[in-house]
Amino acid sequence: MSSAADSVNWVALWHKGLLRWRRARRSFDARALNERRLLIIAVVAGLWFMLDSLWITPGYKQLAASLSRKNQAQMAMQALQDKQRLQQEEMARSEIAVRQELQQTTERMRHQEEEFEKARQVLVPAREMRALLEGLLAEQRSLRLMSMKTLPREDIPLPHVDGAGQTSQLFRHGLEIKVVGSFHDILNWLRSLESLPRKVLWDDMKLQADDQAVLMLTLNVHTLSKDREPMEMAP
Question: Is the pTM of this model over 0.70?
């Protein structure tokens, strides 16, 4: 029963609406052409206003907001990519500079080691220093050897650079020698020491005189070697 009543009501409403539509159409047709145009324009404007208020304007605003957020995200992403690219370029330049500096340092160390090796070959070996000094003293007969003793060894570490080979270690071996004689005899002996084809290094020279004008020279003589032990350098 309920379903039939609802069906009758819908039919009645349909007929009422159809009658109203027909009356409005006859009333519309009865109007003048200008009035009908104005009514059509008013209806269209009303529909457009409703569509614009309910769908077009809100949709456009949402679309504009979405496009703005998208543009901002793209700009932020581009800025981040540019920053990463600049950082990568800076890191690449720094790495190249470090490699170049390391290569230059390595070459400089190798060159210095080669130069030092040439200079070391000119120096008298530590184990030959005692015999050499005694031979020079034998040539200066007026000089008298008072003492000759071995000085403590000194370690000379060389800086290590990657790629420049193994770390080198040098040792300074020295003798303290004391001789007595005249000024000219001592001077001639020092000159003969300086004129040797293979050199020795010397420092800490002390010259003392007694009441009879006899001079005593104390001289530290040393050489450089890669050998830790000088091999019977001096007693």
Answer: no
Mean pLDDT per 10-residue segment, the chain (235 residues): 55 74 70 71 76 73 80 86 87 86 79 66 81 85 87 77 56 90 87 84 84 85 80 58
Collapsing DSSP to helix, strand or coil, 173 comes out as: strand
The residue to which tokens 């003492």 are assigned: 147
Among 11, 43, 49, which residue's Cα sits nearest to residue 24?
43
Nearest to 185 by CA among 146, 130, 137, 127: 137
String of DSSP letters for 175-215: EEEEEEE-HHHHHHHHHHHHT-SSB-EEEEEEEEE-TT--E
Residue type, 190: L
Q: How far apart are CA 177 and CA 217, in angstroms?
A: 8
Distance CA 120, CA 113 (A): 10
Interatomic CA distance for residues 31 and 20, integer angstroms: 17
Half-sphere exposure of 53 (CA within 13 A, CB side): 6
What is the distance between the alpha carbons of residues 158 and 170, in angstroms, rounded to a whole number?
A: 7
